[in-house]
Every structure is written in structure tokens, then in C-alpha cells.
Design brief:
Order of helices and strands: EHEHEHEEEHHHHHEEEE
Strand content: 15-25%
Strand order of the largest sheet: 4-3-2-1-10
Shape: globular
Radius of gyration: 17 Å
Number of helices: 8
């Protein structure tokens, strides 16, 4: 019997990320588990301090390759989020899976035994994959422009306003929207799913029961939020 783990929303490369505070526990966890799901927005290409996507993607590939090489016993599964679903990154992931046996990537979701993982932007986007693609298209250009734009964005995140907005949002509403998406895109039929793991809202919680499923959110490594590395037991190693 083995173990798995998941995280989301590191928002690496952005000015509002505190991800360096979690690198040690992430590495330690990867050394202990058999499956590690990176559940979207691991990188933030929109607000990347590297600027253009090409430099950001090079840095992202470097981060992933270090993890893949350092933890060859661990199967990494990368799911895209609304801040890292850009074509240059997807192209890079497609090349990496050819080179590394311990990597898979998924545009929308993946299943590990009785658990389904998705980023969670369906909460805002809608109940189907096309709606999610349209929602993600809004972030297809890096914010390289006016310094006031970056300052305003930085100030907003450090104010804790985004985190507090989701903290008061009822978990049952989040869960109902995610279930609507998962049912519409047929992620639940024919599978013995009991747990749903997601990110996106930056609000960590575990074991919220709704509609016969347990919902878990790993939080975020951004200012004003907390990241929870969620571990789970596998039925098979």
C-alpha cells in the first residue's frame, strides 16, 4: 500500500507567491509518496516576473525537471489551471512526458483510484470543457504593461481580499458547481469516485461532504493564504 499527495496554486514566478517557503516540505513529500498531483496554477504565466511566456516556460521546465530527476520513484501528474494553461507550456509538457516516464499531464482532470483531481476553475468558467477553455483564454497574454497595473495587482493580493472573498463563499456552492462540471464531462460515471480534490479558490479545507462525495482543497502559496500538502492513502502501490 502506498501514498499520494497533491498541491495546487503555488503561482511560481509571480510577485504574490510565497512558494519558496514550501519547497522543503514539497521535496520531502515527493520523496515519501508514489503519486504527486500538481493540481493547477503551479506556475503563473500571466503575472510572471520573467515577462514573456518563453522565459517563464524555460523556468517552469527547469523546476519540473529537477523534481522528476530528484524523485524518480514518484509519478508526477500535472493538471493545468487558468494561470498556466498556455500553449507554450503545454507544448513543453508534451515533450517532457516523452523524456520522463514519471510524468503525465492533463488539461482538465485526472483520476487516481477513487479520487478525481481538477483545478477548480469550472467554479467560475462553467460546466463544460469549452467554457473552461474560453475562461482560460483571458489569461493568454503576460501582464508586461504598466507598472501601476502590477502594483495594483500586488497590493490587492497582499491585502488578503481575494482569500477572504472565497473564505466566506459557502463550500456547498463550490462543491455543487464542481459536481455539475464533473457530471457533465462524465468524470464520475462508471468510476467509484469518493473524493474530489481541487484548488483555484486559495482556501484550504478537507473532508467537506456534499452530494455523497468528500471535497478537499489544498489552498495556495500566495500572500494571505496557506498551502496544505494533502496526502492520501492508495489502495495499490
Amino acid at each position: 500500500m502506498g501514498y499520494g499527495a497533491t498541491i495546487s496554486d503555488l503561482h511560481l514566478f509571480s510577485h504574490h507567491s510565497r512558494s519558496d517557503e514550501y519547497f522543503e516540505i514539497i521535496d520531502r513529500t515527493a520523496a515519501e509518496v508514489d503519486v504527486f498531483v500538481l493540481n493547477g496554477d503551479i506556475f503563473d504565466f500571466k503575472w510572471s516576473e520573467h515577462g514573456v511566456f518563453e522565459r517563464s516556460v524555460i523556468a517552469a521546465v527547469g523546476f519540473l525537471e529537477r523534481m522528476l530527476k530528484q524523485h524518480p520513484q514518484c509519478q508526477f501528474r500535472v493538471i493545468l489551471g487558468n494561470h498556466d494553461a498556455v500553449p507554450p507550456y503545454m507544448d513543453a509538457l508534451s515533450k517532457l512526458v516523452v523524456e520522463y516516464d514519471n510524468l503525465d499531464w492533463h488539461e482538465f482532470a485526472c483520476v487516481v483510484e477513487d479520487r478525481v483531481f481538477l483545478h477548480g476553475d469550472a467554479i467560475h468558467a462553467g460546466t463544460n470543457n469549452n467554457a473552461i477553455r474560453r475562461f482560460r483564454d483571458k489569461l493568454q497574454r503576460p501582464a508586461n504593461g504598466h507598472q501601476l497595473q502590477r502594483l495594483a495587482h500586488k497590493t490587492m493580493h497582499r491585502s488578503h481580499v481575494p482569500w477572504m472573498a472565497f473564505k466566506v463563499f459557502p463550500n456547498r456552492i463550490l462543491a455543487s458547481r464542481l459536481l455539475a462540471y464533473l457530471k457533465h464531462e462524465d468524470w464520475l460515471n462508471g468510476r467509484a469516485i469518493r473524493h474530489v480534490y481541487f484548488g483555484h479558490t486559495h482556501h484550504a479545507f478537507e473532508d467537506f461532504r456534499y452530494g455523497g462525495y468528500y471535497f478537499h482543497n489544498s489552498g495556495s502559496a500566495t500572500h494571505g493564504s496557506r498551502l496544505h500538502v494533502l496526502k492520501f492513502r492508495l489502495q495499490k502501490k
